[in-house]
Write a structure and sequence with these properties.
mainly alpha, elongated
Length: 98
């Protein structure tokens, strides 16, 4: 599987979001299935359900004062993790605000 990005107009995004919600699936799963059908290619298995991703968030700390999702600031989280690995720092709760 390859990762790609697409830009959608607001109406298409809302329709996609709504269908994914109604079917209990990820938006990516709906996009993959729709494109596979449109191009007549066979998909790589049954559609994935949200329940298939129950592990997401297992490593989060609900008591953390900084509740910024990694997905919103991943480059800074990654840079800090790399820096901490090299300096031996531990216990950081996220990237510093700079």
């Amino acid at each position: 599987m390859r990762r790609t990005q697409v830009q959608l107009d607001d109406a298409t995004h809302e329709a996609l979001r709504r269908r994914a919600f109604e079917e209990g699936r990820s938006m990516s799963s709906v996009v993959r299935e729709t494109l596979a059908e449109a191009f007549g290619v066979r998909g790589g298995g049954p559609p994935r359900k949200i329940e298939d991703f129950a592990f997401v968030g297992m490593g989060s700390d609900p008591a953390s004062p900084r509740d910024t999702p990694v997905s919103e600031d991943h480059d800074r989280w990654y840079a800090e993790a790399v820096a901490n690995r090299w300096t031996g720092a531990a216990g950081s709760d996220g990237p510093d605000e700079t």
